[in-house]
Design brief:
With 328 residues, chain A is an all-alpha fold. Chain A is built from 17 helices and no strands. In chain A, helix 11 runs antiparallel to helix 14 and helix 16 packs antiparallel against helix 17. Chain A starts with 8 loop residues before the first helix and ends with a helix. Chain B has 2 domains: 48 residues, no CATH class; 211 residues, MetI-like (MetI-like fold), CATH 1.10.3720.10. Classes of the chains: A mainly alpha (328), B mainly alpha (276).
Chain lengths: 328, 276
């Protein structure tokens, strides 16, 4: 506790009379204590533990309970994963999926944000309310509904494709009867539909944030640029984007983090963890650890790899937020 | 002309965003033969509550009804909200009301911790739950969700505490109120609306969570609603009527709560980047 005595005196002097009596106030630390215990115990300790687990061979739940030894295997789990061509496929899927989703979410979200800014008040309220619905819908039920929309017998999309004139459908896709078509059977189609679901869930946040940012920009700037003859494209890149650069930075980082670890939508859409061709890092880690036979150590190693990737992105995020707190 | 194009685009966006929610509710109100008819009906022409009746009176899994799962979920979510709100309020008060050496470090940690991929913590938390003897109990989930919801709750609440004028507390202190009294009589009532907003976020976090509930609970009668729905839904011949009815009942509370607090979500996440 010796470090506490170094607390700057000036801050003590500004505080309430009750504070002045003691040179060092323990109260803030006491107030923080429960929070620190929870964060330490439920987030930081497990984070350390997952690293520790990744260096052991853990294939039995009794080992987790502490009834059996944990054989140390060093980097074996990592060499096994990194040497497995399947891991590279999963990594490629994850990165491609994240990039595609971030780009699409950012474009759609920004366009909708700009649109909401231009619409009349009533229309803007209506559209914004609808957009909120997509945002508010839990990942689980949102995905279930999309799965129903893509149902192979009575789903809306199957019906839409069946309604296409047979000749056209035949010429474009090589089939005219879509009943029973497995929309989720090929990995590419699966990932496309997953992208649709994830973008649908995540563009509202981008749209609303961009709109909030736009509202903070004085509208004279835009008007002046337009009077000077700049088209909407130029106005966006020359005025709006530079002004909202910090907002865009944070939104891109947050989206990247979220899209890298998509789990629920993937799990529900794939109906579990059986289909390995649609794996991404988070579900791969989960399946290795919990699908029989359990391989907790191997799953932990994959989780560590995912965490390290996200850590780098998080570093960027924290730097951005701190920079903004300084500026404000 | 331009106005028309903009409004048209607006309507398209609205349709894309809201349609799945509409389709969920519409399907839940259609009789089965309309759901599986060759040509989909845009609106339920023979509205019925049969699917709701089926899931509310029948059993999703033998011996356990929708209401039991709903109750499990509600129990976990409410317990999470209460614990998380209490701990967050104390921490937020410390951060917003006091200047102390580790304050900035704590705030940075709070930010970083929110970025930990929770999906990566399933395995070590599973280990911890096993060690604590909490496997297959609802408290295992309450504990887990407390950890997940707390950092954001503190981050958000600190703004509400800071917004309460300090002079009020100082005046109370001069009048001889103890710190505990000041906290209870002055600060708490003024922060209460913020606490409600924060609680809603914790509630949604706990209510929606699937992976941990899937992993930590073994007995079917202890499933939370998301797990029960995944289970219920995983069968081959999917009965879309009851599934959509269950989805609607699961989703509606979240939508209502969410609409109450969504403004704060933006300001909480984009922390300081967006002004005004």
């Amino acid at each position: 506790m010796t470090t506490l005595t170094d607390a700057p005196e000036t801050s003590a002097a500004r505080e309430t009379p009750a504070r002045r009596r003691r040179p060092v106030d323990r109260l803030p630390y006491l107030l923080l204590l429960p929070c620190l215990v929870v964060i330490g115990g439920l987030l930081l300790w497990p984070l350390g533990q997952v690293v520790a687990m990744s260096f052991h061979r853990l294939n039995n739940v009794r080992q987790l309970r502490g009834d059996r030894e944990w054989p140390w295997v060093g980097l074996d789990n990592y060499t096994q994963i990194l040497g497995d061509p399947f891991f590279l496929t999963v990594l490629r899927n994850t990165v491609l999926f994240a990039v595609a989703n971030v780009v699409l979410t950012m474009i759609l979200g920004t366009l909708v944000g700009l649109l909401l800014h231009r619409l009349g008040r009533k229309m803007a309220t209506f559209v914004a309310s609808c957009v909120m619905l997509a945002w508010a819908t839990p990942a689980l039920t949102g995905t279930i509904v999309w799965k129903w929309i893509f149902d192979d017998t009575s789903g809306l999309v199957t019906w839409l494709f069946n309604v296409l004139p047979d000749g056209l459908s035949q010429a474009l896709f090589g089939r005219s009867d879509w009943t029973g078509y497995g929309w989720f059977n090929s990995p590419l189609l699966f990932f496309s539909i997953l992208t649709l679901v994830v973008v649908w869930h995540s563009f509202p946040f981008i749209a609303v944030s961009v709109l909030a940012g736009l509202k903070s920009v004085p509208s004279e700037l835009h008007e002046a640029a337009r009077v000077d003859g700049a088209g909407p494209w130029r106005v966006f890149w020359r005025i709006t984007f530079p002004l909202l650069r910090p907002v865009f930075g944070i939104l891109i980082v947050l989206s990247t983090i979220w899209d890298f670890k998509v789990f629920t939508q993937q799990f529900v859409l794939a109906g579990g963890t059986q289909d390995r061709s649609t794996f991404m890092l988070s579900i791969y880690s989960y399946a290795e650890a919990f699908s029989p036979p359990p391989k907790y150590g191997l799953g932990a190693a994959i989780a560590v790899i995912l965490t390290v990737i996200l850590l780098v992105v998080t570093g960027l995020y924290v730097r951005m937020v701190l920079k903004q707190e300084d500026e404000s | 002309m331009k106005r028309v194009a903009l409004n048209g685009a607006g309507l398209l966006v609205a349709l894309f965003a809201a349609f799945p929610v509409y389709w969920m509710i519409a399907t839940s109100l259609k009789p089965s033969r309309d759901i599986f008819s060759a040509t989909p009906q845009p609106v339920p022409t023979h509205p019925t509550l049969e699917h709701y009746r089926e899931i509310l009176t029948g059993n999703l899994i033998p011996g356990v009804s929708f209401a039991d799962f709903f109750l499990n979920s509600a129990l976990v979510a409410v317990a999470t909200v209460v614990l998380s709100g209490l701990v967050a309020l104390l921490a937020a008060t410390a951060v917003a009301r006091f200047r102390f050496r580790l304050r900035t470090s704590f705030l940075i940690m709070l930010l970083v911790v929110q970025m930990i991929p929770l999906e990566a913590l399933v395995i070590p938390l599973f280990l911890m739950i096993q060690r604590l003897g909490l496997y297959n109990t609802l408290p295992s989930l309450i504990l887990t969700y407390l950890g997940f919801s707390l950092p954001f709750a503190v981050w958000m609440l600190r703004g509400f505490v800071a917004a309460v004028p300090k002079e009020l507390e100082e005046a109370a202190a001069i009048d001889g109120a103890s710190r505990a009294q000041t906290f209870r009589r002055i600060l708490f009532p003024l922060v209460a609306p913020g606490l409600v907003a924060t609680s809603i976020f914790s509630f949604i976090t706990a209510w929606n969570e699937l992976i941990f509930a899937l992993t930590f609970i073994n007995d079917q009668d202890r499933y939370t609603l998301p797990v029960a729905m995944t289970f219920f839904f995983g069968r081959d011949d999917t009965a879309w009527g009851p599934v959509m009815a269950a989805s609607t009942l699961f989703t509606l509370p979240v939508i209502v709560f969410f609409l109450l607090v969504q403004r704060r979500m933006v300001s909480g996440l984009v922390a300081g980047a967006v002004k005004g």
